[in-house]
Specification:
Elements (H helix, E strand, L loop, with lengths): L10 E5 L3 H12 L3 E6 L2 H7 L5 E4 L5 H6 L7 E4 L5 H13 L4 E5 L3 H9 L4 E3 L1 H11 L8 E6 L2 E7 L9 H7 L4 E7 L2 E4 L12 E7 H8 L2
Parallel strand pairs: 1-2, 1-4, 2-3, 4-5, 5-6
Antiparallel strand pairs: 7-8, 8-11, 9-10, 9-11
């Protein structure tokens, strides 16, 4: 779902404005969502006024405060406070109790995540673990802008088309690339999903590649 689609903007509540919560709130704002940002820190709330429709100082476990701020009308609630595990669990529980249909919660440990699921969280994220996995798996992919691992030795990478690939067709790329597959091309503001094999890569194209880590890196280093 995109916040800038026609009709009412999607409402997202972000509880906890540390690095993770602030990042989520800022990106949601950029995507056009109606963002409610809450934290118990007055300083963090003040900093959030630049990217939140409503920024308020509140305890995420205070049901009455969340209702008064309209959090119950949000389509998505993000529990971004993780270090205080008890507060995180209470917040997730309260969000479900006041009717937020989709709750995403940050967890510090596997046990923390399991408890969040038990109280109703719909999706659990482990920011530090996931970031660490991405860094470790992408050590050999030096040219990737973004990387997501799929298995211990393969993944999906987004990278600028290297000079050697400009003017070559996807058929040539896949034949020479040792198993790498181009699944999307970004050409300026234009997205070309599932491009046909006769498509020729152009200067400044950004490609989304899937394959073995070694094949992705080999493509970047032909």
């Amino acid at each position: 779902m995109r916040g800038n689609q026609q009709g009412a903007r999607k409402r997202v509540a972000v509880i906890g404005l540390g690095r993770f919560g602030t990042s989520v709130a800022m990106v949601c704002h950029e995507l056009g969502y109606d963002v409610t940002a809450l934290d118990i820190s007055e300083r963090r709330v003040a900093e959030a006024t630049d990217f939140a429709t409503l920024a308020a100082q509140a305890d995420g476990a205070d049901k009455e405060a969340l209702l008064a701020l309209g959090v119950g009308r949000s389509e998505v609630g993000v529990v971004a406070q993780g270090q205080n595990i008890e507060a995180s669990i209470s917040c997730a529980l309260v969000l479900k109790q006041i009717g937020v249909p989709w709750v995403i919660a940050k967890a510090e440990t596997d046990l923390h995540g399991q408890i969040l699921v038990k109280v109703g969280a719909d999706r659990i994220v482990y920011p530090e673990k996931e970031a660490g996995n991405q860094v470790a798996h992408s050590l050999d992919i030096r040219h990737a802008v973004d990387y997501m691992n799929l298995t211990p030795t393969s993944g999906v990478a987004r990278l600028m088309v290297p000079d050697h690939a400009v003017g070559k067709s996807l058929a040539q790329i896949e034949e020479h690339g040792g198993g790498v597959c181009v699944i999307l091309i970004q050409r300026g503001n234009l997205l070309l999903p599932h491009p046909p094999l006769e498509t020729t890569l152009e200067h400044r194209d950004v490609v989304l590649l899937a394959g073995l880590d070694s094949a992705i890196d080999a493509f970047a280093d032909w």
